[in-house]
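Re: duplicated header lines in exported structure tokens

Our pipeline writes sequence and tokens for each protein into one text file. With two proteins the header for the second block appears twice in some exports. Here is an export where it did not happen, for reference. First protein block:
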Amino acid sequence: MDDPEDLSRLLKKLKSYEGRPAGSGRGKDPVNAPMIRHWCEAMGDANPAYAGTDPIAPPTMLQAWTMGGLSGPAGRATAYAELLALLDSAGCTAVVATDCEQEYLRPLRPGDVITYEAVIESVSARKTTKLGTGHFVTTRMDVRAGGELAGTHRFRILKYAPAKSDRASAAARPRPVVNRDNAGFWDGVAQRKLLIQRCDACAVLRFPWLPGCGGCGSPEWTAVEASGAGTVFSYVVMHHPPFPAFDPPYAVVLIELAEGVRMISNVTGIAPERVRIGMPVELEFVRVDGGQLLPVFRAPAARVAR
């Protein structure tokens, strides 16, 4: 669809969905300590505020209390489904989640009964990205506890028509985003060093790089070099969707370093189907297209030959 008049008519239809309901309902369970504990164990978050006799829920759990599980959400709205169907009919058959934003207004505590209302907040004009051309759709969910607004969750997707494959650029990988918070890490990579942060106040190690300590809040820290030894904490083998820069199947791995922090990387020297949780790995640096140096992890030779 490239005719300007057709595009204008489509955008007018898409815009008519702004402000319409995208779902509402009541959380299937009140806020409760077991779910808080399971979440913190999975995330490795030992903040004492989330434990004890009077815990609060981690703020990032905001949307978790509204999820419907395998049986689906408590309330559905047809407007959102209609909007997605309209985009499908316009050729925007692919979808990718782009980002989410959360605003926390008050802590949630065990016993709080959660209700939520979601609306289609905005539909963008036609946008062209490397993935293809389409429209960004933003939904806003207002989460309430006992009728009081506790937080807002915005979720944004791109519904797009996939761009045609360009073999000339097939080898180009996305480049890491370097900013003032993580520039020291990439400076270390350039020197073939894997640097993590140590809080100057409480000595807790952390990764990825952050401007302040998540435990004590101190903004003072020191960069320390990791040994490079680690184990596979978790992993997923990617088969689909294909991405021009990578050749599936490949393993995306969560590595637990000997120092106790975790980082996402790749494991080399072994077929992806042979990666296992608990497998020891060793740091190495590899250059990819354009000379970009990246830290990855190699399975020991004895493991590969087995």
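Second protein block, exported in the same file:
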Amino acid sequence: MATRIDSHQHFWQPARGDYTWLRADVPVLAPLVRDFMPQDLMPLLEAHDVTQTVLVQAADSQAETDFMLELATAHEFIGGVVGWVDLSRPEAAASLERMARHPKFKGVRPMLQDLPDDDWIVRAPHPDALQALVRLGLRFDALVKPRHLGALLRFLREWPQLPVVIDHAAKPPVGEADGEVFAAWRHRMREIAALPQQVCCKFSGLWTEAPSAMYRDADVVAHAVRPVWEHLLECFGPGRLMWGSDWPVLTLAGDYAGWIAVSEAFIAQLSTGEQAQVWRGTAQRFYDLQPA
């Protein structure tokens, strides 16, 4: 069995009040409006030989980042934390310096997909905050959709020294490989992957991007995801792709074992060394994770 690192998972407690997007009155989200904590994930990690995870923010709140860092202190399997600060404010640099004192704080993720300005990433971040990311050796998770990729490309060209990973492959329309949006996604991802600096991509979060008719059916979603995988592999190669679950958001569409089975169908076609890169090596290197 392959040893794995889950490069993208979440924990939350809705009662904390951080998660404004988690609304019980939205039927599709209602199953997520409960606590998801380490004791819920640990049996899945053990069953699938996942030795470490990267815990990623799910709220635009520094308090949630502190909450995640507390969990990382208490649980060895959490290898790194990707938190949140308001990068548009100059005082973000001081917040980053404080968080970076924790050895498991690895970077930040602004919730770009939820912001009203699709060009926020090239207009709003304060240079002091971005320079602090670079100076402190931190990373940037880009939570984007296809419509954001043009702005992200401009940002990457302006900040070539900042390590960036694209979450969930920028959420292409799974199952619509013949459509215009998918074609535009393919073009932009190829442009981004061709940049000289190290930009990585997460193979994660794609089951929930499929039509709801594909939920709970791993075989059907594997067929729909294949064009996404093949393009990512062509553009980024195994050395810049990392596997992640996006648990517990994943549970809206499938389950942990099912997503591993879907991923295995593609990753197993690589050489042994290339498989190790996607399952664990790329995440370990990008986030500078210490061995569990």
